[in-house]
Amino acid sequence: MAKMILSMDGLVLKEIPLTKERMTLGRKPHNDIQIDNLAISGEHAAVVTILNDSFLEDLNSTNGTLVNGQPVKKHFLKNGDVVELGKYKLKYIAEQAAQVTDAADFEKTMVLRPNMIRPAPAADAAAPSVPPAAPLPGGSPAVGSETAPAPKSFGDTHAGGLQAQPSAAPAATPALAAAIQILNGANAGRELELTKTLTTLGKPGVQVAVIAKRPHGFFITHVEGAQFPVVNGKTLDAQAHQLEDHDVIEIAGVKMEFFFKT
């Protein structure tokens, strides 16, 4: 299990295991990691952990968040990274010290533009035909980019081993294939295939969520914002939620349909 070591002026204060998928850091008592100092915002930052990997998100704090001396808004944490909040430091210790994931694997959320995703096929028997919902106020949705797959990032983790006797290879399990279709706004009707291990959705500073592709399905997790994602009219909590075929997701006023591709 990954953990963070809190220190100030070189003095270790405590070790904090990252036991939840989303843990907040801030001055107010309700935070998972409370740092009672006026230089720290009430809700300063959050650490989201999926499988063996974690990333840090600054929650629009007043004084900002540094990682290894550099200001960040969103940062994929690597073993040994030092997060700085005022005079306090949090050193990230990964479960496995050998990290192969590059920081660029988790890209900053960006605004989806029409030329970034292909239009849904005019006649595709495999994809469901869902009429776009009526446009909602707010204009184009903001949908994040997908991360490049990495051996240990938010995906399959396999333990290698030696077999005493050779055996026939098991039949390959078909890879999960899924996509989301925008239902309202300027990009209504367009598709975004979920081919990578992690996809960010939403509007930075308003509401952001991630869809993680795992061996047994696709899971959506809240990352940023006071409002949590809504799936089929039900507001989610801080825990990861497994998506089912034809689920309708609402993030930052944008509705989209999740579906499996065959």
UniProtKB/TrEMBL annotation:
Disordered: region residues: 122-152
UniProt cross-references to SUPFAM superfamilies, sorted A to Z: SMAD/FHA domain
The species this protein was found in: Candidatus Proximibacter danicus
Composition skew (Low complexity), residue ranges: 136-145
Lineage: superkingdom: Bacteria
PROSITE patterns given in the database record: FHA_DOMAIN, S4
Residues of the FHA domain: 23-72
Protein name according to UniProt: FHA domain-containing protein
Repressor among keywords: no
Gene3D superfamilies per UniProt: 2.60.200.20
Keyword set includes Transmembrane: no
